Amino acid sequence: MKNNNSAADGEQAGKLSVPSVVPTMTTTSVVTWRTVRVSVVLVGVTLGLFVLYNSAINPFKFLPVSYTYRAFRFSSPHKDPILEKVVKEAAMEDGTIIITTLNDAWAEPDSLLDLFLKSFHVGNGTQRLLKHLVIVTLDQKAYSRCVALHPHCYQLDTQGTNFSSEAYFMTSDYLKMMWRRIEFLIYVLEMGHSFVFTDTDIMWLQDPFNHFYKEADFQIASDSYLGNPEDLNNVPNGGFVYVRANPKTVKFYKFWYQSRTIYPGQHDQDVLNKIKHSPLIPKIGMKLRFLDTANFGGFCQMGRDMSKMATVHANCCVGLENKVHDLRILLQDWNNFFNRTIAGNKSPSSTPSWTVPQDCRTSFQRGRQHKDDKKTGN
Ligand SMILES: *[C@@H]1O[C@H](CO)[C@@H](O)[C@H](O)[C@H]1NC(C)=O
Ligand SMILES: *[C@@H]1O[C@H](CO)[C@@H](O)[C@H](O)[C@H]1NC(C)=O
Ligand SMILES: *[C@@H]1O[C@H](CO)[C@@H](O)[C@H](O)[C@H]1NC(C)=O
């Protein structure tokens, strides 16, 4: 907002410079007058730009022009009737929706989208949640694939960036994609919808609403969970969050989004891991809680008791093929467990357990190798 104002001030400064020059010119010939008028306008424009430029780099350095423009755009109601329609159709009675974002690489047949949707069907009490899922696509191909499989699809305006190929972990396109996602979620909150955001490489095995904290505004999955949901030393994973829409969470999300300029080159999750200590969070009054990996597991850390597991994330894993490979096995593990439970076979000796991570376990080293290969290839 502040930058918007100073941009307006800049224009004003340009205009104000005109009258102070004009009166002294009224007696000169028409030709000279025209030249002067042109140059006065030019001076005005230059002055305006100069003021704008200075205000953009100096006093509000942490708020770039692009951010304030978007913040302004968000606050205008009924901006996106298509999104509002999709969200309304998917919303639960209390307005809550489930959101995932998807690009072409993840939407291909036999890839993550298929596994993600399958998990809702083989999970315990998760199938009914599918009608509340909004799939936000980042490119046209993912959108077409979504429409073929699911009733609630929304194509996000990606503002000129091509997110369709597999955005390799921590490349600049990957970062842009992550931050565009946060920006989109601010908009959803401002529309008044609480949401569960889930990455598409998370399998929904049981209803997560049975495991959420009752009193929290913002609850987030953990890469590493130390045993206490309020302990700020827990390591968050932004791939799974449950956020209640209220003024506190809107303020917090805007603060999170702004903080990306203080920690350039870092993704939303790393920035969150820094700002979780900020005194601004208690000041806003937002209750932040970390979800237990016993219920919201992942390849970084995962509870052993399958009956307690709501969702499992292919985190601590890079590379699409590695994720697909291990998640496919995870669903088999789950089926083994769940079918036996249904059949009433509970003998401890035959109790199934997780057999993953496998390929994901070594994916970081092999991922680095892959990148180096690419470099020498170029
Ligand atoms: C985006 O990238 C993909 C793969 O790299 C390419 O096939 C596609 O044509 C690109 N789309 C646009 C709009 O540039
Ligand atoms: C399935 O979900 C129901 C309801 O939450 C629960 O009572 C039951 O124990 C679950 N089944 C298994 C195998 O975890
Ligand atoms: C278990 O149940 C699922 C779905 O109900 C089924 O597709 C699968 O073949 C069954 N058996 C095993 C061993 O996974």
UniProtKB/TrEMBL annotation:
Transmembrane segments: 35-53
Entry GO terms, CC: Golgi membrane
Subcellular location: Golgi apparatus membrane
Enzyme class: transferase
InterPro entries, per the entry: At1g28695/At4g15970-like, Nucl-diP-sugar_transferase, Nucleotide-diphossugar_trans
Domain Nucleotide-diphospho-sugar transferase, residue spans: 129-327
Keywords, alphabetical: Cell wall biogenesis/degradation, Glycosyltransferase, Golgi apparatus, Membrane, Signal-anchor, Transferase, Transmembrane, Transmembrane helix
Membrane topology classification: Single-pass type II membrane protein
Biased composition range(s): Polar residues: 346-366
Top-level taxon of the source organism: Eukaryota
Pfam families given in the database record: Nucleotid_trans (PF03407)
GO molecular function: glycosyltransferase activity
Main location: Golgi
Residue ranges, annotated region (Disordered): 346-378
Keyword Phosphoprotein (UniProt): no
One GO process term, biological-process aspect: cell wall organization
E.C. number(s) listed in UniProt: 2.4.2.-
PANTHER family (UniProt xref): EXPRESSED PROTEIN-RELATED (PTHR46038), GLYCOSYLTRANSFERASE (PTHR46038:SF13)
Family, similarity comment: Belongs to the glycosyltransferase 77 family.
Protein name: Glycosyltransferase
Lineage, highest ranks first: Eukaryota, Viridiplantae, Streptophyta, Embryophyta, Tracheophyta
